[in-house]
């Protein structure tokens, strides 16, 4: 034991121990800094994730608000009101053109007018080979819900890739 005690008195040994203690302190310091940095990054990722989620929710809300105006515009349009009052070919044609204009302006996939039985009377795609005019959509959820509530709104968004 006496030799071990004498070893601690040696200046070279004390310098070596001091270097190891300093190295250990630095290692502990670096570990704490690393841990703090990782914690900060995780917290930042979580907050950005919430921010991006909020932005996505806001985007969808804006899109649905954008489309919610369209049925009101259609319901109050002069051509549509004339066609409902007097469903003749000329009023149907002007209603089809109006629905096509609304569809293009709103970027909706389609816009069409249904009668009380769910039959399409006028449609934005009236010129296409797969026109909805004459098709019966009484089975669709927006029509069924509209029969109950008195308001029939169906919204579909077109996605471009």
Automatic annotation (TrEMBL):
Domain of life assignment = Bacteria
Q: Which UniProt keywords apply?
A: Membrane, Plasmid, Transmembrane, Transmembrane helix
- Membrane-crossing residue ranges in chain numbering: 20-40
Q: Which InterPro entries match?
A: Sensor-like_sf
Q: Provide the protein name.
A: Uncharacterized protein
């Amino acid at each position: 034991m006496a030799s071990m005690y004498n070893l601690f008195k040696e200046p070279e040994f004390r310098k070596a121990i001091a270097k190891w203690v300093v190295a250990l302190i630095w290692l502990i310091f670096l570990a704490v800094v690393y841990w703090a940095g990782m914690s900060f990054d995780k917290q930042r990722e979580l907050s950005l994730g919430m921010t991006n989620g909020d932005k996505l929710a806001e985007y969808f809300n804006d899109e649905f608000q954008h489309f919610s105006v369209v049925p009101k515009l259609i319901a109050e349009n002069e051509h549509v009101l004339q066609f409902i009052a007097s469903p003749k070919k000329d009023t149907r044609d002007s209603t089809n053109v109006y629905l096509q204009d609304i569809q293009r302006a709103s970027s909706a996939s389609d816009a069409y007018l249904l009668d009380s039985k769910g039959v399409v009377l006028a449609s934005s795609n009236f010129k296409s080979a797969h026109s909805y005019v004459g098709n019966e959509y009484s089975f669709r959820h927006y029509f069924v819900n509209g029969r109950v509530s008195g308001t029939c709104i169906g919204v579909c968004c077109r996605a471009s890739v």
